[in-house]
Structure prediction request, 840 residues.
Amino acid sequence: MSEHDEAVWRTSPGRVGKMMAILVGTVVIGTIIFFALGDYWISELSPAGQTFAGITDEVDAPVVEQTGKDIPITLDFIESKDFRILAFNALPGEVGNNPTINASVGDRIIFNILNAGKSFHSFGVTPNEEGFGGILSGTDVATANNPLKPGDGGTSEFIPGEPGTYYYICTVPGHRDMGMVGTIIVE
Amino acid sequence: MGHSNWAEWIYVAVVIALLVYVGAEAWNIENLIEHTPQDAEIIKVTAQQWLWSFEHEDGTKEVGELHLKKDHAYKFEITSKDVNHNFNIPEFVVLMDAVPGRVNTVWFSPNQAGEFDIQCREYCGLIHYNMRAKLIVEGV
Amino acid sequence: MVLELKRARPVWQIMFSTHHTDVGLMYLIFSILAMFIGGAMAIALRVELFAPGAQLIQDSMTFNRLFTIHGTTMIFLFLLPSAAAVGNYLVPIMVRYKDMAYPKLNAIAFWMIPPAATLVWLGMADFGWYANPPYSVISAPAPAAEMWIFGLKILGVSSILGSINFVVTILKCKHPDLSIGKVPLLAWSFLSSSIIVLAAMPTFAAALLMLLTDRLGATGFFNPAVGGDPIAYQHLFWFTFHPEVYVLVIPAIGMMYEIIPRFSRRPIFSHGSGVFAFVLLAIVAFASWAHHMFATGMTFTEKTVFMIGTLAAVPASAMHVFNFLATMWNGRIKFATPMMWAVGGIALFFAAGAGGVVNTAMPLDFITHDSYWVVGHFHLFVFGTIAFGTIGFFYYLFPYVTGRMYNEKLGVVHFILAFVGACITFFTQHILGLFGMPRRIYDYPEIDTWISMNALISVGAMIILVGMVIFLANLIYSAAKGKPANLQDPFGLGGKYYYPYSQRNPHHGEGGY
Prediction:
């Protein structure tokens, strides 16, 4: 097809430079968008995943008015050195381990949560006796998919509308079984 | 082509011979490994994000650690509660996927006493890198 | 061939062109960009893994996303487009036709790639480039996972369209005087890899769709909680992706078939063996997929079948190595940069293949599965063989595309750094795997042997990085200000070469090859 023998240019270096600038500029803009939206890209769980974790839309407890007192409580996520035992505030056997909270219907329990461990944790209150699902809305601090990093913390609150036993847990799968659970007894 | 390529034929023959040898030897050894002894004690292994739990034949449960006896044959029945994991004791070359909805088996007989690592060998999410347990082999 | 206009064209005219050389150039630029982006991710991973504890990356989720997208970028956005670049550039010339069979389809196939890359890079999914369920169905966060799935769907379609183009161009558009047996081996490599893509890719397209509907909760193909089988996905995935690794390696071997005879100043030892080996490899590639699944609980018979299938592919690869070595034997070899890369590539190809034979020996797989041995093994293939062959070929094409010569000394330095770095990094990873370190882990316990090997591997990666920076500088500077090349014989090899520069038919005109 080509019978030419001398060098001829596809295009000029200046124009190639412009194209490179456009390309690099596109990548830079993409990077800005990526970081600007931060954790949005990994913020949700797929519908199948939500079903698996037992997260449904109905778990929104009806909004309860506070008619009682404020009960603030500080809960720190802690771990044993070998990561095999997890707990709130103190390890099993020590004073203050997984403190039980006593409250009445209408009290507002204010949770001050801190990740004092080296791993990742997230917080929530559930009426379920087992597992990491059924988290009541408003009680969560971070989620298992977007957990608290070491040193991070947050607050949430829980106003029980019904008497009974509730559990505050770490919502990362498996952590409840390893000891991160405490009871809230509501009269 | 128009030139002799006897060297190529010999080369290919040598390659094929080596591969046949590797294949036959592998077949042989795998045959031996797969044969679980009759008296192997069954240990149920459950993998979940991100910890290992074990159940002995007599119902004893252990989480995060496993106590076994030296020179005793054990057969692991491995499953998972959520995603794929892989039960691995590198120092005894025990390795088998933990697949939810399925039970995989692998057997071994620890010939050394001491403490050994159990780790997860299939990517399973956030704490895959720290999904570890301890194997403690007792005995003389 | 390429440079037939007297006046510099505006860049948009190149971008919207359907001419095979322009599409090839765009694939080339995109693939080099992706190589550096994927490489930057790899460097981030290696800096983090230099020692136990958190260094650069503060949480495991970011690490998981980085290794997932590193793998996805390198395979789908660097290696496949770089092969497409070379193929687009040269296949029409090699079969003496004016363009690809379907030029507009060609451009469309290219232009699908940047939007797909955008989806993949913005989402940065975290499930590993295999996307194994159930993790990818019930545990991997959204929308990253869906973006990856859509991105890969688009890339798969692009690959299939490109392959259709190659097959039709080579089989149907070749010059009537050119018999199929005389078609150059580089073109045969594209024919072979394209046919594999056409047979293998639709399976993955199906698997991706099933993964998506599973995620949406509409189906239960792979989700055991609703009666599915996660291992079914692995069969579908590997049925595509084992042949796919041959799709990656075959064009690189084809590129070596261009470089080695030329720089040895001897004809290829046996063109017929090369053709036979490509065809055989394309067929046998389909017989070995479940060797990736030996640890899933397969029966002895199943594993044996796939071990045999894997071993059966080795003689074909061995024939290529023999062909190269026999061509170089008694040749007057000129070790210019492209030749160094090609020969280095053959050496690492051999090492990679040897490691593969270990993996497929069933009992040995229990030691190596999902450990750093596997990481070292496949990197010897994708970096040591494919990237080496590709980069060597980029150096070879450089004078033809730009009209200027790259700086030879910098090219040699780049090669030495890459080769030494690759040996340090990837051979050490083999040993680290034997010591039990799993792959895809953000952090590791303080085991002395692991710590020292990881540090060594990270140093090796930095050596490769330095080489790549030199490469980038060489590319940019030489393209702008390099010495004008003698386009009849840029490497000073003597003799006449009828392509890739001028497309004279050797039966007409003077001389010819």
